[in-house]
C-alpha cells in the first residue's frame, strides 16, 4: 500500500459530513477554489460526482482534470481518498 | 456531422456505447466530460462496436481453449482413476463455469445425464488436441472445427518440431559417444 498523507487518513477516518472540498486529499486552496466556483463547494458534492461516474478511476480523474486542472498526483490522491472513504462508509 | 451539443443525453449515452467508452449516467455535471471523450474518440476515428458479434467467436474460442486446458486438467485430476472419470469431472467443472458456455450447455444438456452417451461426447473435445480417441460419433460441429483447432493451436509446424527433436537427439548422441570414459559405454548407448 503506498503511503497516504495525513489529510487522506483524516478524511477516511470518519463520515465527511459538511467538510469543505479542501478537506479532500489532493485538493488544496487553488483547486478547492476552482471547484467551488463550479458549484462543488462541499466534499459531498464531489462525492456525488464520484458516484455518478460510477467510481471509475479514469472517468473521475479525467473529470477532475477538466474541472479544476488537477495534475496526476492530485487526481490520484483525490480518487484514492474518495474510494477508500466509500469502501468504509458507503 | 451533427453537433454533439444538440444531442439528447440518451443519444450521448448511445454514442458512448458505440465507441466502447465506459460511462455513467449523462447528467448535467457529466455531460461535458462525455462530450469531450466522444470528440476525442471521433478524432481518433476508432469505432468499437459492442459485443454482439463476439458470441459467434465464443464458440470457436472455447473450442480452442479446450485444446489448451484439457492437458493440464486431465493430468492433474484423476491420474489414478479411470480416464473417463477425470474427463467427466473436468467437463462438469467447465459447465459450472460460466456465461460463454451457454451455447454448449444449451446444445448438449441431454448428454450430461446419460453415461453411455457421455462417452462419445467426451471424446469429441479431447480428440481435438491429440492422443487417444478418434472415436467420433460426435454430434456437433466439432468435426469441421477440429482441424481448425489443430492448425490454430500450433505456432511452429509439427514436422519442424520433429526435425528439431531429431537434430537435438543426434547432437546429444554425438556428444555422448565422444565422451571419454574408462569403461565402455555400449551398455548405455
From TrEMBL, chain A:
SMART domains: BAF. Gene3D superfamilies: Barrier-to-autointegration factor, BAF. GO terms for molecular function: DNA binding. The keyword DNA-binding applies. Keywords: Chromosome, Cytoplasm, DNA-binding, Nucleus. GO terms for biological process: chromosome organization. The keyword Iron does not apply. GO terms for cellular component: condensed chromosome; cytoplasm; nuclear envelope. Belongs to the BAF family. This is Barrier-to-autointegration factor. It comes from Gambusia affinis (Western mosquitofish). The lineage of its organism: Eukaryota, Metazoa, Chordata, Craniata, Vertebrata.
